[in-house]
Amino acid sequence: MTLKQTACLFLCIYTIPLLATEAATQADDLFALSVEDLLEVHVDIASKTSETLASAPSTITVFNRKKIALLGVNNAFELMNFVPGMQSTRGDWVGAVPKDHARGVYLDSGNILVMINGERLNESSFGKASVYMPFIPVEVIDKVEFIRGPGSALYGSNAFLGVMNIVTKSHANEISLAVGNVGQASAAFSLSQQVNEQTHLFANGAYNRKSGERYPQGVKDPLQSIYLEAGLDIDKLAVRGRYNQVELNDFLNLGGYSEANQHQSENAFISLSYDWLDTDTSTFSSKVAYTHHQIQSAGLIATADSLPLASYDSFIGPAWRTSDLTINLDASHEFDNGWLFNSGLEYSHAEQQKADVRTNYFDANSGARIEADQFYQGGIVTISNYAPFQSLQATFETRSIYGQIKVPYSEQFTLFLGARYDDVKDLDSNLSPRIAAIYRPAEAHTLKLQYGESFRTPVTNELYSNDDVTIGNPNLKSEYVKTTELVWRYERQDWHVNSVFFYNQLHDFINIVPLSADNTQFTFANQLDDTNRGLEFDSMLRLDNDFSVEATYTQYFDTPMQPTFKRFASVIANYEYQQWLLSVNGVWRDEVSVQTSNFKQPAYLLLGAVVSWQLSARSQLSFKAHNILDKQYDVFDPRMADGAVAGVGSEYSVHYQIKF
User: Fold this and answer.
1) Is the CB of residue 440 less than 8 Å from the CB of residue 446?
2) Which residues neighbour 281 within 8 Å (Cβ) at sequence distance 6 or greater?
3) pLDDT band at residue 627, thresholds of 50, 70 and 90?
């Protein structure tokens, strides 16, 4: 973190007493946990209309602030481990950033759309949001909403197998501090000020770091992250800004463990929106948003003893910059008969502006990487205008139109019909329809039949890459999926159960294909057509006012496209006693065995816990533990020679939070 950024963070924390409200808050809602809070939470991610979990036309999982605190996670991506049909582990690509498992698909191409406050993070070079924003601190989060299944009918590309929307805090005044083992330390703040009836200000900030644990490969997994955000609302005008920077050095990058591995990513975001019309029956709004992404990364691809002409290990990686400009118009109207129509237009200009290389070997005369001592650069440096990367500097211009109608035929039956058309200039076009029929035969029962289609447009890394690891394929087409879901939901005051049967028809999936016998160089191909069926289950039961239990279970009926968990589950138990709260959680994953790489990881269980003590109406102290038993485990990644990526060991931390 630079001196300027450190000063900015210090200044924000220093000004907390000046901006905080004087009134004391009541006891944290964490200590009034209820099933009703989760059942009646309203979400608009699924339809751009305010719906409950029962009435939404998609399969939804929501984590509010209370539930996130009880899970003891530090990064928003870790919440996926408690979502049916999803998991998040570390992979081998650019800094071992989080890698998604979704409904039997385990690829590294951004098949889940990640958004912050409804603004997409996935971009045009790698496709994965986590490459440019691998750490999103939970301290600034108010709520996280997941669509399990297709979302392209509303959100376009990348909303393929799921959508994750992170809603940050905008009406909180609090500060938190934490320390823990493996060098963990963090500080965060949230500020909110109602200046007058028309004007509201808010800000969030967080700094997180850890030195990391030592792994048998001789490396650690350090982290350093800064997150800053601010917002201004003046009547119908809303301005938002955000900056994030993350460093994930050492550990694993491009398939190699090395203390010299480097990964730094950052992004900056600003948006301006205006509500031109907002009545009881009609709305019309516009928004302009700009996002800047940057990455500097380098990973070990060959050791010195494997290079006959070189005395030093060989490193390579991207020094890339991309940008996204989006203009959106959105409208809705409710007719006299109760029908609700939503529609919108969107224009997106995505550009890869920079495509340099980070390397420690380079011949300036030939403009090529030559792994010989006379071309050693004395360390890892950035080579500008690196010829093999120049084809990556591409532009994607997308025009989109979408519409949806909600038809409430009766109190028991509601129908949603919608579609979105995306045209990517000179590349591809896609129509993404969806339909959802929701029927409530009795007060406690809800049945849903849902069908949707989604797509993912190939990104520059897949189309045009040209390095020592990957060679692009400019003939790629978009991959797409057709999904049918049958949902049954049962809910009472102290109990709910939700079961989903899904059937995916996958077409033209882009897969990584080896170009060399030793799996050191790869290309991309529309290689896979497959079907995937599975069952997802989640339930919550409150046994009395002090004790509640939640559980999830996922079972796939078909062999996953890439070796991943075919069965997995989670459980969360919460117990409250006066000012104390104990929460214990577990994530269970079935075995994974891959004969081609001799990889075998038996089934394992990761246990976590949170103990919270409400010191006063304004403050609380918490102890968090992850992987309590220090389970040593690996997850499979096809680009590793032995298929294994080491999992995270035990982490413990103490957190103090005070509200103003």
Assistant:
1) yes
2) 333, 334
3) very high
- Minimum mean pLDDT range among 13-22, 350-359, 390-399: 13-22
584 forms bridges with which residues in the sheet? Answer: 573, 609
pLDDT at 508: 92
* Cβ atoms of residues 110 and 456 within 8 Å: yes
Among 11-15, 245-249, 522-526, the range scoring the smallest mean pLDDT is 11-15
CB 480 within 8 A of CB 508: yes
* Residues 193 and 21 sit within 8 Å (Cβ to Cβ): yes
Element (H, E) at 260: none
The whole-angstrom separation of Cα 127 and Cα 113 is 9
428 DSSP 8-state letter = E
Q: Residues with Cβ < 8 Å from 200, sequence gap 6 or more?
A: 170, 192, 193, 194, 231, 232, 233
Band the pLDDT of 43: cuts 50, 70, 90. confident
Read off φ and ψ for residue 273, nearest 5 degrees: -130, 155
CA angle, 170 then 176 then 180, to 5°: 135
Q: What is the pTM of this model?
A: 0.92
The residue assigned the tokens 């939970």 is 138
The candidate with the shortest Cα–Cα distance to 552, out of 629, 608, 497, is: 497
- The predicted-structure confidence for 323-344, as pLDDT tens digits, reads as follows 999 999 999 999 999 999 999 9
Whole-angstrom Cα distance, residue 230 to residue 233?
10
| Amino acid 299: pLDDT | 95
Closest CA to 349 of 372, 365, 326: 326
User: Half-sphere exposure of 257 toward its Cβ, with a 13 Å CA cutoff?
Assistant: 15
The one-character DSSP state at 71 is H
Distance CA 487, CA 137 (A): 32
Q: In whole angstroms, how far apart are CA 113 and each of 459, 625, 643?
A: 14, 29, 26
DSSP state of 111: -
Q: Please report where in the chains the tokens 């390397």 appear, as a residue.
A: 359
User: Helices then strands (H, E): number in the chain?
Assistant: 7, 37
Tell me the per-residue pLDDT of 267-280, one tens digit each, with 9 for 90 and over: 999 999 999 999 99
Predicted confidence band of residue 33 (pLDDT cuts 50, 70, 90): very low
Q: What is the CA radius of gyration of the chain?
A: 24
Supply the pLDDT for residue 49. 75
* Structure confidence at residue 105 (pLDDT): 87
Contact 634, 645 (CB under 8 A): yes
Q: Residue 497's closest CA among 32, 27, 46, 54?
A: 54
Spatial CA neighbour of 321 closest among 353, 358, 298:
353
Tell whether the model's pLDDT for residue 486 goes beyond 90.
yes
DSSP string spanning 164-201?
EEEEEPSS--EEEEEEESTT-EEEEEEEEEE-SSSEEE
Count CB neighbours of 161 within 10 A. Answer: 30
Q: Is the pLDDT of residue 37 over 60?
A: no
Hey, what are 588's tokens?
């269970």
Q: How many CB atoms lie within 10 A of CB 180?
A: 19
Q: C-alpha angle with apex 579: 577 to 585, nearest 5 degrees? A: 60
Residue length, the chain?
660
Q: What CA–CA distance (Å, rounded) separates 545 from 526?
A: 53
**pLDDT of 363-379, one tens digit each?**
999 999 999 999 999 99
What is d(CA 606, CA 603) in angstroms, rounded to the nearest whole number?
10
User: What's the pLDDT at 451?
Assistant: 97
